[in-house]
Amino acid sequence: KMDDDDDDIPQLSSQTLAALQEFYLEQQQREDMKTSQGFNQYSIGSIEEDWQLSQFWYSDETASCLAKEAVVAAGEGGRIACVSAPSVYQKLKELDGKDFSVCILEYDRRFSVYGEEFIFYDYNQPLNLPENLLPHSFDIVLADPPYLSEECLEKTAETIKYLTKGKILLCTGAIMEEQAAKHLGVKMCKFIPKHLRNLANEFRCYVNYASGLD
């Protein structure tokens, strides 16, 4: 009889149920925020992290700090490139500055909603870039390579060096300090970036110019 099989149906633990409920509640809150008046398509979290793409968004404070640093470093009328750093791009757009321009180089095509400023980017093909993206045409390049590996950093570094007029702001793990110096000539700053969710690896910022992050 069917009744005899009821015992075989797996039951969710109370912790799993609670976690599920919290997840659905968070989702609902995000949807509510999106449909509420004044929703900003550039706000951090408007596009959710995809951990399979090794995405981890910065906290609002960190994104603000990095965005403001990039604007100052770029100077008036400056051009800023965000390489695999969409939450800083979003914050720059939120600032709505008239005296700088910005583009986002990103593997995740969801960011194509941002129109012409979105450039599809795969670090495995570091120089496979649109023809209109001229070499050394950005006053500062802010990059956050998706993986903590020398191979990923080395390939992203090719892109950074192609794009930048000189200034580089790199965000990656503390364990990458030697490789960051080797491939990009950048030094660790005192500023410690934070993420919306705590990461297992200590994260740091590196620059090759006199920045406001010290």
In short:
With 214 residues, the chain is of the alpha/beta class. It is built from 5 helices and 7 strands.
Structure, described:
The chain has 214 residues and is an alpha/beta fold. It folds into two domains: 12-41; 51-207, Rossmann fold. The protein is 32% helix and 18% strand. It has a seven-stranded mixed beta sheet, with helices on both faces. The N and C termini lie far apart (72 Å). The model is unreliable at 33-39, 42-46 and 49-54 (pLDDT under 50).
Summarize this structure as a short list of keywords or feature phrases.
single chain; 214 residues; alpha/beta; Rossmann fold; 2 domains; 7-stranded mixed β-sheet; 5 helices; 18% strand; nucleic acid binding; Mlase_EEF1AKMT1/ZCCHC4; methyltransferase
List the helices and strands and how they pair.
Blueprint (H helix, E strand, L loop, with lengths): L13 H22 L24 H15 L3 E6 L2 H10 L4 E7 L11 E3 L17 E6 L6 H14 E10 L3 H8 L2 E2 L14 E5 L7
Parallel strand pairs: 1-2, 1-4, 2-3, 4-5
Antiparallel strand pairs: 5-7, 6-7
GO molecular function: nucleic acid binding; protein-lysine N-methyltransferase activity
Catalytic activity: L-lysyl-[protein] + 3 S-adenosyl-L-methionine = N(6),N(6),N(6)-trimethyl-L-lysyl-[protein] + 3 S-adenosyl-L-homocysteine + 3 H(+)
GO biological process, one term: methylation
